């Protein structure tokens, strides 16, 4: 059973927005809700929003899947780090990263140095249900999705755990996760 976090008032949200002095960077597994929740947080805090994967696709003029297929994961991660570094220079904003970004030591160091990292965590079953909606995840191709996600989650958790704020994103409405994130940031700042 999840305990619902009380919503911040409009005044508390405005106060929080005024205290955000650098990018809020959402990290965590694929399909945990970073982009969806990130857009809502950006809207509430009246901050610009960016999705790192979308920015990478625009810069490369090809999809993440195509970059993986054509150039490999190492090439993708290098471009991802450069795009995230550029986005972190924008000042207060909300940035949703790809699932593997924060696992890369150089990218993680950039985010921890220049942003406020928020780890969105979720149960594997919730992730399975969410990834079933799209077939655009290069790391899930050609294998058992549940096994791959469970393995990636275990492998990546030590990196994700370095984020100073951890929030559970469960199967409930995204607004509950948004409330938990805002509360977590407010308490951390």
Count of helical regions: 9
Spans where pLDDT lies below 50 across 5 or more residues? none
* Tally of strands: 5
* Category from helices, strands and their pairing: alpha/beta
Radius of gyration: 16 Å
Shape: globular
Proportion in β-strands: 5-15%
Strand line-up across the major sheet: 2-3-1-4-5
> SSE order in H/E notation?
HEHEHHHEHEHHEH
Taking all residues together, what is the mean pLDDT?
A: 89
The main pleated sheet reads as: 5 strands, parallel
Description:
The chain has 189 residues and is α/β, with parallel strands linked by helices. It has nine helices and five strands, in the order H-E-H-E-H-H-H-E-H-E-H-H-E-H. The protein has helices at residues 10-19, 34-45, 52-60, 64-71, 73-88, 105-114, 124-131, 145-160, 174-188, and strands spanning 24-27, 49-51, 94-96, 116-121, 165-168. The protein has a five-stranded parallel sheet with strand order 2-3-1-4-5, with helices on both faces. Helix 3 crosses helix 5 (73-88). The chain is globular, with a radius of gyration of 16 Å. The two termini are 28 Å apart. The mean pLDDT is 89.
Key traits:
189 residues; alpha/beta; five-stranded parallel β-sheet; 5 strands; 55% helix
């Amino acid at each position: 059973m999840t305990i619902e976090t009380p919503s911040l008032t409009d005044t508390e949200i405005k106060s929080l927005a005024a205290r955000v002095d650098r990018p809020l960077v959402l990290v965590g597994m694929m399909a945990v809700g970073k982009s969806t929740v990130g857009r809502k947080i950006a809207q509430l805090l009246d901050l610009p929003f960016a999705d790192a994967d979308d920015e990478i696709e625009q810069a490369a003029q090809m999809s993440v899947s195509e970059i993986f297929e054509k150039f490999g994961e190492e090439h993708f991660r290098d471009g991802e780090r450069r795009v995230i570094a550029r986005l972190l220079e924008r000042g207060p904003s909300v940035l949703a990263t790809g699932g593997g970004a924060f696992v890369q030591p150089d990218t993680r160091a950039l985010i921890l140095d220049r942003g406020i990292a928020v780890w969105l965590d979720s149960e594997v079953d919730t992730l399975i249900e969410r990834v079933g909606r799209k077939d655009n995840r290069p790391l899930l191709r050609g294998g058992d999705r549940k096994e791959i996600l469970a393995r990636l989650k275990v492998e990546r958790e030590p990196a994700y755990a370095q984020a100073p704020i951890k929030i559970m994103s469960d199967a409930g409405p995204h607004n509950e996760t948004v409330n938990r994130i805002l509360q977590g940031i407010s308490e951390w700042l």
